[in-house]
Write a structure and sequence with these properties.
Layout (H helix, E strand, L loop, with lengths): L2 H6 L4 E5 L5 H10 L3 E5 L3 H8 L10 H9 L3 E4 L10 E4 L14 H12 L5 E5 L7 H11 L9 E5 L18 E5 L2 H12 L5 E4 L2 H32 L3 H8 L23 H11 L5 H11 L1 H15 L8 E5 L14 H11 L3 E5 L5 E4 L2 E4 L5 H6 L2 E4 L8 H7 L3 E3 L12 E3 L1
Parallel strand pairs: 1-2, 1-4, 2-3, 4-5, 5-6, 7-8, 9-10, 9-13, 13-14, 14-15
Antiparallel strand pairs: 6-7, 11-12
Helix pairs in contact: 5-6, 8-10, 8-11, 12-13
The structure holds ligand SAJ.
Length: 431
């Protein structure tokens, strides 16, 4: 039976390679639509959890996981042999940056290498992992061709950027339009057919490079706009203006403006990384991506700027940074999440420690973290902790924190996220 027939009658076997915050929700969506899904995962702890029917992904309930496992519709494995049984394989592995800000393609090369070793006629391979423009056809297609099969005839290849926003109560995989670009028209058609079974709207584009670039534009758009307001925060401070007032008033414009907000930097695994993927590729093409790089530089400079502002505020209270007790409020990279990977709060804490400050933190979502080789435990937000600090620095404005109480009990508050909005006090210094 043809692949498209199997997809349409949902007898197609779907393999998801990489069961993280992208792969797991995707696997569950295909299960919901009647497909039999095999998840491939190398992390032993994740496999152990899945073996116990326990979900480690906040947007996937253990109940639903167990439901599809019991129904024989979802199976997780650490072995790649079953890849040859899949009609479609969706690659959802991490694509981090190296310390040199260059793409680290080791994970995705390893993953596609496993697929190539088991590639067979009739398979559709879709790359969902964010990567630089051209990676699918320049880097990954040659690996797949080592199986001796012809792309577009024996197997099909596409790129479809993941648009998963962890914890987003409104937008999930099914209702977020899915961009799809094939390495040839037949591959595009196959991938459109597949995703049309699980996503309300599929957006086909002309190539894998187009699809790769769509994703990078989406997130570079965010990064450059965040950089703009980060620079505006510095400009407003320089001019004695309140950047938060300026942005809120600009946001009253019902057209032609979209508010972004400054902060102590940007975190997460998308926004800091994606512009760097684009810049890196452009430089290999002898194109100088000045604007994109400047945005990254501004964003990456915000932790240092935040520390300068904290030092300035302490200085006014005749306290040197060295020896001052700084209580950091909010370590996660954005509100409401426990994820503190790449969080700017880590950079701020590292810089403060390097300056000799005594740093502690409170984050209701992050029990402990490591900074400059030290393990810090979350301190309870007690009256004593607030009163003892020379400065409380709000770096992530988590919900359900009583910022009025924070201001009342603190000697000095540096508010990098306008969390204390509307609380008028000479103790509050805002970014
Ligand atoms: N940030 C600011 N100011 C802003 C917005 C964000 O400083 O105005 C900071 C955040 O604090 C965070 C970082 O930027 O540290 C990234 O924030 P984000 O809201 O972009 O959240 P992410 O990293 O979870 O981005 C993801 C992206 N999703 C995908 O790549 C699939 C992004 O495209 C989404 O738009 C974003 O979620 C979202 O809207 O939540």
């Amino acid at each position: 039976m043809e692949l498209s027939d199997k997809i349409r009658n949902r007898s197609a076997r779907v393999g998801v390679l990489g069961l993280g915050y992208v792969g797991m929700p995707l696997a569950m969506d295909f299960c919901r639509k009647g497909f039999r899904v095999t998840g491939f995962e190398v992390d032993r702890r994740r496999l152990a959890d899945l073996g116990r029917g326990k979900s480690y992904i906040r947007d996937v309930s253990s109940e639903e996981l167990r439901k599809w496992q019991s129904a024989g519709r979802f199976l997780a494995t650490g072995r790649f042999a079953a890849l040859s049984q899949q009609d479609a394989v969706l690659v959802c592995v991490q694509t981090p940056l190296r310390k040199t800000k260059e793409p680290d393609v080791s994970n995705i090369l390893a993953a596609v290498g496993e697929v190539a070793r088991r590639l067979r006629r009739g398979q559709l391979i879709v790359i969902e992992s964010t990567t630089y423009p051209g990676a699918t056809e320049e880097l990954l297609l040659p690996v797949l061709r080592q199986a001796g099969l012809r792309m577009g005839k024996d197997f099909f290849l596409a790129f479809s950027p993941e648009r998963v926003d962890p914890g987003n109560p409104t937008w999930g995989i099914a209702n977020t339009p899915k961009v799809v670009g094939g390495a040839d028209p037949v591959s595009t058609a196959c991938a459109v057919e597949l995703y049309s079974q699980v996503v309300d709207r599929v957006v086909p584009v002309s190539s894998t490079r187009a699809a790769e670039t769509v994703k990078l534009l989406e997130n570079t758009f965010r990064a450059v706009n965040i950089a703009l307001v980060n620079e505006m925060a510095q400009v407003c401070h320089h001019m004695g203006l309140d950047v938060w007032e300026i942005i809120d008033a600009a946001a009253s414009k019902p057209f032609g403006f979209m508010p972004f907000y400054p902060g102590p930097g940007i975190g997460g695994h998308c926004i800091p990384k994606d512009p760097r993927l684009l810049s890196w590729k452009l430089k290999t093409l002898n194109f100088d991506p000045r604007f994109i790089q400047l945005a990254s530089t501004i964003n990456e400079g915000m932790p240092e700027y935040a520390v300068e502002r904290i030092a300035e505020a302490l200085n006014r209270a005749r306290k040197p940074l060295r020896g001052s007790r700084i209580l950091i409020l909010g370590a996660a990279y954005k509100p409401g999440l426990e994820d503190y990977r790449e969080s700017p709060a880590l950079d701020v804490m590292s810089l403060l420690l390097r300056s000799g400050a005594k740093v502690s933190y409170h984050d209701p979502f992050v029990r402990s973290l490591e900074v400059r080789g030290r393990r810090l435990l979350c301190v309870p937000l007690t009256d004593r902790a607030l009163k003892a600090a020379d400065c409380a620095a709000i770096l992530t404005a988590h919900p359900r924190v009583d910022y009025r109480r924070v201001v009342r009990l603190s000697r000095l508050v540096f508010d990098a996220r306008n969390a204390a909005k509307g609380i008028r006090s000479p103790k509050v210094i805002r970014l």
